[in-house]
User: Fold these one by one.
Assistant:
Number 1:
Amino acid sequence: MTELAGTVAWIQATRHHLVARHAQARDERGATAVEWLLIIIAAVGICAAVALAVKTYVDTQSGKLNGG
């Protein structure tokens, strides 16, 4: 029974250590560096899609004005 209690205490201490270490990796908004990187990549992708849509629209309208 003593070994079981020691094992349970070790598991709880390890869990507490992992939770504390994970909490330190987050900034004040609660996001890790990897999460911020993914957010930035997504934002750049959205901006690129919007720019492509605007360019396509402008090219189409220019073609209509030029009689094309």
Number 2:
Amino acid sequence: MNSDNPNESKNDNILNPSVSDPESESPILDNLPSETQTDISIQDTSEEPNVLSDVISNEPAESAEESVDSDTEIPPLLAKPEEPAETIEESVDSDSEIPPLPARPEEPEVFVEGNSEDESSEISEIEGEALSEIEQIEYELEKLEKEIVQSEIDSEGDFIPETEEEKQTMAEIELLEVAAKKQTKEADKLTKEIIPAPEDADMVETYVPEFQREPGTPEKPADDDEEDPTPKPVEEESEDLQAELERIYETGVGTGLDEWDREILLPVFENRLRMTKNSTKLSYSKLKNQILSFKGISASFQGPIENFRYNKKIVFRFAIKDDSVQLYCALDPESIDNNVYPHKKAKGEHAKATATILTINDENSLRNAGEIITLVAAKIGTAEKEHHVPVAFAERYPINPNGVLFGQESKPPIDGQYDNDDDYAPISGEIINGIIEAKFGKSKLQERKELKGKEVLDDLRQTANTIKAAVALTEPVVYFFDAALNKESSIEYLNIQQLLNDKFLGKIVPQVFFAVAEGSDRIEKFNFLSLEFAVEQANAYPSTRFVLALSCRLLIRDEVFERLLRNAKTLNDNLVLAFDCALLESLGDMGLQKIRRLRNEAGVMIMIDNSENAGMRVLTEYDFEYIRFDSRFYAGDNAKQRSHLEMMTGYARSQNIKTTSINVLTLKEAQIMVERGVDVIQGPAASEPKRIATLAMKGVKKLPLGR
């Protein structure tokens, strides 16, 4: 409502402040100009009639409720007149959330002089209450606005950029997120690849032998925080990382290279043993087998040492120092004669459990160590097992000629350091040699001198049967490697032969073994054993191909074939599986589909074996990398056989398939096969079978195969 009265306009601004005006959020009445507070009561009565008292006295009090909202607690000021001309207009907009104040009549307001102070006080109270309500409403609005903003922030809906600036900013954010995720992934990978340093063995020792304890001291400390002898697996470790760690420990492959391109090996016990001489490895194997032949003793590696426990107490320790084995035993050093058993007294934390140290570096010290082991076993109250099967521990740790222990990288390599086969050649036949030595040693030969005639023959027969049984018990299945050479006399692949040590028959050669086993369901068991061994070798030697012959029976049943798919995968796709040609052809479409799946899903290469009788379907429909013939089938000067071989090799050459011939005995036979188109020679002419892959690769012959 427009008004010419300036005082009235000021009162309007005070009583009805705008919510959006920042200067009107919290008005203070005491600081307003004096005119605002006093002019209401000192208006010129000559200009405006005084009708306020008449209006208040004539109108009923109930009519005042019409001018205010029903929910507000503000008391009414003026009553609405009954006449239409005197209707009071609302002073507050209907959309405003501020509680309405009393309406103002159209006619000029006048005050009775006697009531001016009371009315002014009443207006001040109303203004104060109105301001309080305004502040409360503004507080509620601000709180509601914050809740709305927070709900939008917490909502799952994605932000959709609209303007060009928003789109550009969003693109930059996405690029930063991708880079952050990549860096996080690389950091996690590096964190997982970090091999935790082994705990100090001195910090986990809790057992103190009786002779070392003070009188009245309990056997175990009060807290009894005894170490669990079972090694705990690394938590949240991926399968690929675990396989890589096992490969490092089992094969001695390092995690980095030094300035001479040598692989840096972790200084754990296994690698320390690996880099020693064969005599040290054999001594270690013999002593470990003797310790484990007693009941209740278990072994576990811990950094640079190997612990042996009985009832969770450490009774023996192994350590490697230079080219000797150090045996720590739970024995009082003063209880044994140093002249008979040369030894040292352990120092530091090791002395709490294993106080005596013996150094094994020759036959005499090895014999003394064996007697001390027996003495300690008797002291702790354990006995030997009735049937102990020895293990060829020395064969597990062939030398890594391209390796160096961590901490010795500064020492330059020495030319020919590992060329001495007696000291560093891979060990084979450890168990058999041990059995033969036990049966035909000096003491046994001395006993046989007293036998005569038939007694000598019977003793030899019995000894032979005993050796067969012992070998069959300790090594029922053994493997041999023979290298196949190409025309450049370099190794094309290593062929793996599985042999069975029978208790009565002795060794069964591969040809007889497969001929017998093909008719039995046990062929699957033996094939999967050989497959597991072949995969281990392929992973250990990534630059060498390995060939393994398998039975076609593995392709028939779906569950067996699925197992074959899972187990045949290697890290470097360097495994070749050979299948008999005639049996494969008899499987028809099923064999064709299974071979394709093997190549595509398992990543293996395929060799068609005994291909001298191959049919056209095998040659034209199957996908394979190698085709192998038996040289004995083409022996002699038969023209038809010679033409057949030349035809087969010519077809294979046109299809980029390599041909190989097995059972080539002499260099002359090898020369003939090469002249007729064969690419690879396998047999005694190329190499002799060896128990160790490195020996097979090292023992290849030079073939004069120039064409």
Number 3:
Amino acid sequence: MQNNTPAHINSLAELGSFRTSNPETIKMADGTVLRQVTNKEFLAKAEEDNASDHVMARQSGMSGWVTRDSGQHVMIKLATETAYDLSVPEDGPVAPSNSDTEYAPDDPEELNYDGEFSDRDFDLFADVVGKIESNGDYTVVGGYNDHYQGKYQFGRLALKDVGIGFSQEARQAFLGDPELQETAFQSLTMQNHKTLTRLSAKYRRLSQREQLAILAMAHNAGAGGALEYLRTGKDTADGFGTAGSKYINAVRSAFRGGEA
């Protein structure tokens, strides 16, 4: 453990360097298996600790590891209070948020998927996600330091995934352009859809409406979180404690309600 654990992961850039020099998982002497922290997990924990009133939250730092079974962070005690750097490097070894599945092996079962969702189903799915995230308000900003933007609460990494910057000007333009927000949401959703289609035979066998329910979870937990749910049935939770299953159940309920 000592050879693989840095003094403290303080930024996404440091996390990227950590990933390139460490294995995906390690096994402790007591049998506990640790895996690398994803970008989404790092930002959620960093935002929570930066905003915390508790001194201990700012006198401990992420090691870069979480327990594989429970997702609990392995923390390192620091000598002084230290705030996390939440900036996203323009260049460098940091992978975008959708890369939380980069180490997942392709599913060996080759199945074909016939492709597109109906416009009506997709619109209902988008409406459900938008209501959970912002009550459908395109102008909302939220989270620590106003990190999340618009109807679908896009953060830095999600915006980067769809080719949108995070400067003040870019954020204001994004908030003032509902059409751009809808396009970004569709693009991110289809990125997650392609990832899950590639990695999960179970996902490919689902009905299109059930796939949309899983994609709602992926919007909150990332494709990696949704993939883990498909493989193990384990629910996810974001940095604010919101369960990924909340999104699944909301989409299922909307479809059952005969609204589409």
Number 4:
Amino acid sequence: MVPLDNATTSMINADTEMTEKNNCQHETTQERRIDGRESVRRIINGWWQEMLCCALSIVSLIVLTIVLRRFDNQPLPQWPSGITLNTVLAFIATLCRAMLLVPVSEGLAQAKWTWFKKKPRPLKDFEAFDKASRGLGGSLELLARTKGWLVGIIAAVLLTTTIATSTITQFAITYPSRIVESGEKGIAMAWRLDERWGINDPDYAVMNEPAIVRGIKQGVHSLVRDETPFREPKCAAANCAWPQFNTLALCHKVTNVTHLVEADLDFYHGRENITLPNGIYTLPGRGHTQFSGAPTFFVSEGPAISHKYLRNVSVFDYFAIYWDGAMKTPRAVEISIHWCIDTYEAELVDNILKMNKTASHVPNLQIQNLEYQSLSIPGNDEEVYTVGSSSFRMIGSNLNESLSGKSVYRSAERFFGTSGSDMLVQATKEIAQSDAKGNSTLEYLGMETAWWIAVNGMASNVASSLTNTFLPDDPNVDGVSLQRVVYVKVGWEWLALLSIQVGLSILLLICVIIETAKARVEVIKGSTAQVLFAISAEEKARMEHGVDESNTPERDHRRQTHVELCKVGNNWILKG
């Protein structure tokens, strides 16, 4: 026999392929046509399980949304056996994912039949459809082989993204914390000197003079650099808050009046004196020698000079004079302890108290009689505070006794005084020594600055200490206790992937149903029996004799891995 050349062989193969294709198409034309009602019935009968799974995936997504909406911005649910919201989320999301994968896998199984219905395909495509439902690599291979087919694209997207569904869905829940009111009474307490103090207790200072003296002494003996705070609120919890409140209080005002001092420091002629225009007078202290001076600290009550505008609310006006024994002009300051109305804001956060004085007003005098005096915030005549008239006099008298005095400091002598001026000496010396850090020269030069600090600090502490003394024993400002609560915060955007997957699975099923109907292919899906008998006996014989395809590695591999099922009764067994 004369061998055929390549051209002749190609023509014969082409004719054979055309004949085989026509035979297949001829068989297709013999299929009976199905009316519309029959088509619907066949679709329902063939796809009811996949439709049910699509419905269940939608229901799962709706249930998941309802559960998350129920607990969004709510405290953590307390469920038995340690079940958490994340556990429920994972269960529902897994169920939803399992349901949506059923139409995807079955749709792909059916799609391979419609894929081969369109035109002749290599058997390798059949294997690609089979691998697609098994993992990421198979789905990407199917996408490459179907080359833009909508069913292949949707299937690849679904099979690729479902790997991350569980992890991404868990991100939908976070657990931040916030502060909320506990609702319990009597846990957060604060104090204020209310509007009716002078009416309800007009003789408070008279009846509680020892407490007044103690309050003054406590202020005098406190460290001048440590400001005495307003009485701190009490809270039995780690977090509390109080409403903004006003209180009657004592404040202080300090003004430098050194420019008003007249001094003659001539020890030699015996004319030494230090004088202020309001009649305040003292002699400068003498040193160890006849004509030398020594640091002098003087405190005395006196008529107001710069603070005349405080005369209606002032409790005590006094002056402090300091001379270091050498300066030409002694230093002088005017101090007034007066009534004021302070505004406070307080909160306790993680056991740390934050209390701020947001405003302080010098009140206006409204009414003055023998029993009490009425004071109001400027511009607000409705909020009127009262002070017993006798309290004015008694407080001023005790302040004068505790603060007034004259002290001369000589370095060679030990100093143990306890009067107001004596405490001023000790406070000034303590500050100067602390700032000088052992340097005697710096200590001497820093005495004046230290005196200014001591005068202001002592006045502030005395006013604050007296205010705390006036406060009632029982709290009269109710706050609220707060507790830190962990709550559920839902990030709805993290459910977008699952929602898209549910939608795509439904779209994939619809596309496969349409493709199946258009191609007039029976609903076969992943039937194993149909796969076994899909190739006719003639084609199998040709494949077994090696005339099915060109000499390819796939054919060699099939020959090496040849398997055969043999029937035994009504069952089958693998031969070999």
